[in-house]
Structures are given as structure tokens and as C-alpha cells.
From TrEMBL, chain A:
<keyword id="KW-0460">Magnesium</keyword>
<dbReference type="InterPro" id="IPR011761">
    <property type="entry name" value="ATP-grasp"/>
</dbReference>
<keyword id="KW-0092">Biotin</keyword>
<dbReference type="InterPro" id="IPR051602">
    <property type="entry name" value="ACC_Biotin_Carboxylase"/>
</dbReference>
<dbReference type="InterPro" id="IPR005481">
    <property type="entry name" value="BC-like_N"/>
</dbReference>
<comment type="function">
    <text>This protein is a component of the acetyl coenzyme A carboxylase complex; first, biotin carboxylase catalyzes the carboxylation of the carrier protein and then the transcarboxylase transfers the carboxyl group to form malonyl-CoA.</text>
</comment>
<keyword id="KW-0547">Nucleotide-binding</keyword>
<protein>
    <recommendedName>
        <fullName>Biotin carboxylase</fullName>
        <ecNumber>6.3.4.14</ecNumber>
    </recommendedName>
</protein>
<keyword id="KW-0067">ATP-binding</keyword>
TrEMBL record, chain B:
<comment type="function">
    <text>This protein is a component of the acetyl coenzyme A carboxylase complex; first, biotin carboxylase catalyzes the carboxylation of the carrier protein and then the transcarboxylase transfers the carboxyl group to form malonyl-CoA.</text>
</comment>
<keyword id="KW-0276">Fatty acid metabolism</keyword>
<dbReference type="GO" id="GO:0006633">
    <property type="term" value="P:fatty acid biosynthetic process"/>
</dbReference>
<keyword id="KW-0275">Fatty acid biosynthesis</keyword>
<feature type="domain" description="Lipoyl-binding">
    <location>
        <begin position="87"/>
        <end position="163"/>
    </location>
</feature>
<feature type="compositionally biased region" description="Pro residues">
    <location>
        <begin position="59"/>
        <end position="69"/>
    </location>
</feature>
<keyword id="KW-0444">Lipid biosynthesis</keyword>
<dbReference type="InterPro" id="IPR000089">
    <property type="entry name" value="Biotin_lipoyl"/>
</dbReference>
<comment type="pathway">
    <text>Lipid metabolism; fatty acid biosynthesis.</text>
</comment>
Length: 451, 164
């Protein structure tokens, strides 16, 4: 087991990792930028090293600063957290060449699952469903019609050089497909200088369901059940829960097994998440792998009783997983809400500043993962998430009631937060009935985006 | 549970209290929190006299005032403005290991009394096997060397004091 670990991150996840280290009897070296120097959680690390100015690019993202701190901190391993360098293959390689264990997958496994083309190949090899579509660019109208005939309408025409929602149009029949292809090619040529388009099945009102996996360095891969993260705003998750509501048990088992097959095919070890979209017929399709621990990991920790961060450290130290698949439970229902310092009335722009009052809820099944405290000044340089409130109760209905009660108890003054929006979501029939999909928040609960 | 009394502290404590008050005024601190075992002191300036509280242990408040929030880019680790003693401070522009000379056999780049100009190399900081020469960035005479050869230094750490 490691004696000393460096945490290459900040905020709530850095605190989370420090806590895991303390319980395992491992010394922790925290890094901080000048803007984070006085943050309270640093005192819980064995040592804190300032590695650069406020800007992430010159501090938390600077590989040489992180490695330099690791060297003077005399650590054996680095936990990258999420974001920052956690999915940076080059960083993982540098750690390895400096004889420092990167707590995560190998650079090669990261590359195998991180590259879109390679990940699709792995999915095919592992017999995991992909979103059906053309295999590459569509060369002719006839080809497009044949594909649409095969996969069924509606279909999505996508510009290969596009991204982030640009260069996409939906076609619901042969006529609109023919028209759409011409239009899409013209627009793509104009906007991206590349007229190439491809076709995918259009999934209406998809659910975002992801599977937590963890694999040791001895070939054992285990899933820790699924999470539903459909409650989003502009592709940013607001609420995550486990188990996914209204998903038949057989589908849950199939989707989790598919995730395990894919991770096995990737020869991946440590923690990761396999993302799927699920359509209204409960058909699921592989989207991508997140080769890191995720923000919403506490939801899985509550229903399985497993400390994921500790387990990541153990796996990295070479220990075998201590349980087999059949002993991984999914007890009760856990729901997490992300609390962001954002102004819901001003297009959710960041609301940095000093927290003048803070009262955290409590009671059975209540967990608050956060680095903030009364008097803390939220810096403007980093993401706006200031804490995660997680509840775990025997049923989903009880979890919702608990969460509503907690948000009513919650007091946070000095900055604006997304708590009012969260309360409205938790009272909305779509959420209460477990019928969420990835655009329901934008459709029903926020004013139209001025994008 | 009996409340700790706010009665007059022992004479020893009065001296300590006086020292703390003077230190707070000298350094412009608005709040100081100290804890030793079960005893906790919290002094806050801004009222006519600093208030001493000896309460049951609670979570310590941050000891220093919160850092200022910058809206534009933060300044680089440049030498700070002259302090009370009129000296400039050369700070580490990177995290790593401080070396005072080019090699172990060489004399140090500078020592107390050395004259420096902005381009003078005052030390090396090694990060990831790369030895970075650190320029003085100020002109003057080295008044104090604050770190030893081989010390680990963090970003922004004070290395030398320079009399301009």
C-alpha cells in the first residue's frame, strides 16, 4: 500500500480523496494554486504545496508543476480526481516514466477507450450496441435511403466536421431525408469547409444511463450498477440517481453486463464509467467511456456500500477486488443534486464571492460532499460546483421527500445558487414519476436558451 | 454542561493577550484564532477592543483574511513591493528544489552582500529534472538568503531579500 499520495486536484474532490487517504492511513500531499492557498481542507492533508498562480493552465493543468510537487513531496502515487489531468494520457505516461503510480487506467487503456473510433471498435468486439447508422460518410442519396430503411426513421443527418449540436438535422421520412441531405451538405461546406455528412438513428427524448465499473490489475472486472443522469441542463448534469427508475431489471442487468464486456475488451483497470443512451423502448446504445472517477460517484457508494475512492487506491496498489459480482448489492435509492454557485436568473452565469451564511441539512441518509464553509470565498477561476447533496433512503419516493426536506433546510447566503431550480425539478411530475430524459429540464423548467 | 466562564484570565494569559493584540495591529489582521487542547481563543478586531472568547472547541475559523478576488489575470510571482523593512522579496516562480549554485562544487550564485541586476541568476530551481535558472528581476544587494541548498520550495515562496 502506498505511504504517500499526491492529489492533483482541488475543491470537493480533493477533500474526498484526502478523506479516503486518512482512513487508509496514507499521507496525502495536496497541491493548490495561489487562489486556493487559504482553503480550509488543505489543513487535513499531511502537506500542501502551492504550485502556481490562480489560472488552471498555469497550476492544476501544468504537468511539470504537478510532477515537481510530487517529487519534492516524495509521493509514490498521484490521484488525479476528475477533470484537469484525469484523462490526459500524456500525464499518465509522464507519471509512469517518473516511477509514480497514476491512480487510474494505464495510458494505453485510456487511449483505447478515449478515441471515438477505437471505442466503437471495442464496442463491436464486445457485442455492445452502438447507435445504428452509416459506417462513415454517406456517399450518395441512394445509400442514405437504404440506411434509413435499415435503421428506421427518424434519422439524424450529422456533419462530420461539426460538433456541439452544429450541423445536425432530423429527417422523418424519405422526402425530408433527400432534402435534408442536400441542405446539410451545403451548410456543412459553408460552415466547416467540409461537406461530409453521416447518418445516425435519431433517439428522441433519450435517457442518459451510465454504468460504474471497477477492474483490478488481475483481470477481474465488476460493475457497481447503473446511474440515471438524464436530469441535465445544456448537457450539464444537475441530478444523478441510482438505480435508474422505471428500467426493467432485465435491462439493468443487460446494460451492466454490456459495460463489463466492453471494459474487459479494453483491458482497462481501475474505476471508469460506461455511458449509454436509452430510448423509449428501453433499447440502449453505447456512447462513450469516462476513464476517471466521476462527480456523481457518491450515488453508487450509497447504494452499494462501497468506498470507490479507497477502492481506486487499493486497485492501483495492486490489491485484488475484495468482492465478486454476485456480492455487489444495490440497496435502496440514492439521489444526488449538484449545488452550483450560479445565478439562475441570469442565464446561470457563475456567482463567485463570499459565503456569508451556511447551514447544512442532516438526518438519516443525508450526505454533503463539499469543501465550502461559512466565510469561504468562492474564487472565479474554476468551475461553479460548490457541493453535492446526496440522500439514500429505502425507496425513491422517500429519497425525493428527504431531498426536498434537505433543500428546505439548506441555507447558503452570499452567492446565488441553483437550489431554487433543483427544488422545482424535484416537484415536477416528470421527475417524480421517473420519466426523465435529457431535455426535459430545458423544455419545462427553464426559459428558452438564448444560445 | 458548564459553560466556561468569561471571567478574567490568569496574569500569564493577559501578557499573551497583549502580545496578540499588538501583533494583530502591526500586521493588520482582523481575526486570529488559536487553539491548544480544550482551550480556544478567538480575537476579532473592528470593535472598540478585541474580544476574547474561550469557548468549547469548535471548528477553527480561517486564520487570515480571505484572499482578494481577481477579475483580471493574477500577477505573476513578481518581487513584491517594499515591505516595512524597505526590502524587496524574490519569490519562487515555480515549484521544485532550490539549488544555490550551478553544481555542488561551484560557489553559490549569490550570497549576502552580492550585487544583483534584473538578469542576474540568483539560483536554480529544479523541476522534473530540468534546472531552471531564476533571474533576480530586481536590482540591488542581497540582504538575506531565506532558503538552503536542496530545500523544496513552492510557487511564490520567498527566496531572497534584496535591498534596492
Amino acid at each position: 500500500m502506498f505511504q504517500r499520495i499526491l492529489i492533483a486536484n482541488r475543491g470537493e474532490i480533493a477533500l474526498r480523496i484526502i478523506r479516503a487517504c486518512r482512513e487508509l492511513g496514507i499521507e496525502s500531499v495536496a497541491v493548490c494554486s495561489e487562489a486556493d492557498r487559504n482553503t480550509d481542507y488543505l489543513r487535513l492533508a499531511s502537506n500542501a504545496i502551492c504550485i502556481g498562480p490562480a489560472q488552471s493552465a498555469q497550476s492544476y493543468l501544468q504537468i511539470k508543476n504537478i510532477i515537481s510537487a510530487a517529487e519534492i513531496g516524495n509521493v509514490e502515487a498521484i490521484h488525479p480526481g476528475y477533470g484537469f489531468l484525469s484523462e490526459n494520457e500524456h500525464f499518465a505516461e509522464v507519471c509512469r516514466s517518473c516511477n509514480i503510480t497514476f491512480i487510474g487506467p494505464s495510458p494505453e487503456a485510456m487511449a483505447r477507450v478515449g478515441d471515438k473510433v477505437s471505442a466503437k471498435e471495442l464496442a463491436k468486439k464486445a457485442q455492445v450496441n452502438l447507435v445504428p447508422g452509416s459506417d462513415g460518410l454517406v456517399e450518395s442519396e441512394d445509400e442514405a435511403l437504404a440506411i434509413a430503411g435499415r435503421i428506421g426513421y427518424p434519422v439524424l443527418i450529422k456533419a462530420t466536421a461539426g460538433g456541439g449540436g452544429k450541423g445536425m438535422r432530423v429527417a422523418r421520412n424519405d422526402l425530408s431525408l433527400k432534402d435534408g441531405l442536400k441542405q446539410a451538405a451545403l451548410e456543412a461546406e459553408k460552415a466547416f469547409n467540409n461537406a461530409g455528412v453521416y447518418i445516425e438513428k435519431y433517439i428522441e427524448n433519450p435517457r442518459h444511463v451510465e454504468v460504474q465499473i471497477i477492474a483490478d490489475q488481475h483481470g477481474e472486472v465488476v460493475h457497481l450498477w447503473e446511474r440515471d443522469c438524464s436530469t441535465q441542463r445544456r448537457h450539464q448534469k444537475l441530478i444523478e440517481e441510482s438505480p435508474a427508475p422505471n428500467l426493467p431489471q432485465s435491462v439493468r442487468e443487460d446494460i451492466c453486463k454490456a459495460a463489463v464486456r466492453l471494459i474487459q475488451a479494453a483491458e482497462y483497470h481501475n474505476a471508469g464509467t460506461v455511458e449509454f443512451i436509452v430510448d423509449s423502448d428501453n433499447q440502449f446504445y453505447f456512447i462513450e467511456v469516462n476513464a476517471r472517477i466521476q462527480v456523481e460517484h457518491p450515488v453508487t457508494e450509497m447504494v452499494t456500500g462501497i468506498d470507490l475512492i479507497q477502492q481506486q487506491i487499493r486497485v492501483a496498489a495492486g490489491e485484488p477486488l475484495p468482492w465478486k459480482q454476485r456480492s455487489v448489492p444495490c440497496n435502496g435509492a440514492a439521489i444526488e443534486v449538484r449545488i452550483n454557485a450560479e445565478d439562475p436568473e441570469n442565464d446561470f452565469r457563475g456567482s463567485p464571492g463570499k459565503i456569508t451564511k451556511l447551514r447544512i441539512p442532516g438526518g438519516p441518509g443525508v450526505r454533503f460532499d463539499s469543501h465550502v464553509y461559512e466565510g469561504y470565498v468562492i474564487p472565479p477561476y474554476y468551475d461553479s460546483m460548490i457541493g453535492k447533496l446526496i440522500v439514500h433512503r429505502p425507496t425513491r419516493a422517500e429519497a425525493i421527500a428527504c431531498l426536498r426536506r434537505c433543500l428546505d433546510e439548506f441555507v447558503l447566503e452570499g452567492v446565488k445558487t441553483t437550489i431554487p431550480l433543483l427544488k422545482r425539478i424535484l416537484s415536477h411530475s416528470t421527475f417524480v414519476e421517473g420519466r426523465m430524459h435529457t431535455t426535459f429540464v430545458e423544455q419545462h423548467l427553464v426559459s428558452k436558451d438564448r444560445s | 454542561m458548564s459553560e466556561p466562564s468569561a471571567a478574567s484570565p490568569a496574569p500569564f494569559d493577559l501578557d499573551r493577550l497583549q502580545q496578540l493584540i499588538e501583533l494583530m495591529e502591526k500586521h493588520g489582521l482582523s481575526e486570529v484564532s488559536l487553539r491548544r487542547g480544550q482551550e480556544q481563543w478567538r480575537l476579532r478586531r473592528g470593535s472598540p477592543a478585541p474580544v476574547m472568547m474561550s469557548a468549547a472547541p469548535m471548528a477553527p475559523m480561517p486564520a487570515a483574511p480571505p484572499p482578494p478576488m481577481a477579475s483580471a489575470s493574477a500577477p505573476p510571482a513578481a518581487p513584491s513591493a517594499p515591505k516595512d523593512d524597505g526590502l524587496l522579496v524574490i519569490k519562487a516562480p515555480t515549484v521544485g528544489t532550490f539549488y544555490s549554485a550551478q553544481t555542488p562544487e561551484d560557489p553559490p550564485f549569490v550570497s549576502v552582500g552580492s550585487k544583483v541586476s534584473p538578469q542576474t541568476t540568483v539560483c536554480l530551481i529544479e523541476a522534473m529534472k530540468v534546472f531552471n535558472p531564476i533571474p533576480a528581476e530586481v536590482a540591488g544587494t542581497i540582504a538575506e538568503v531565506l532558503v538552503k541548498n536542496g530545500d523544496a520550495v513552492e510557487y511564490g515562496q520567498a527566496l531572497f531579500k534584496v535591498r534596492p
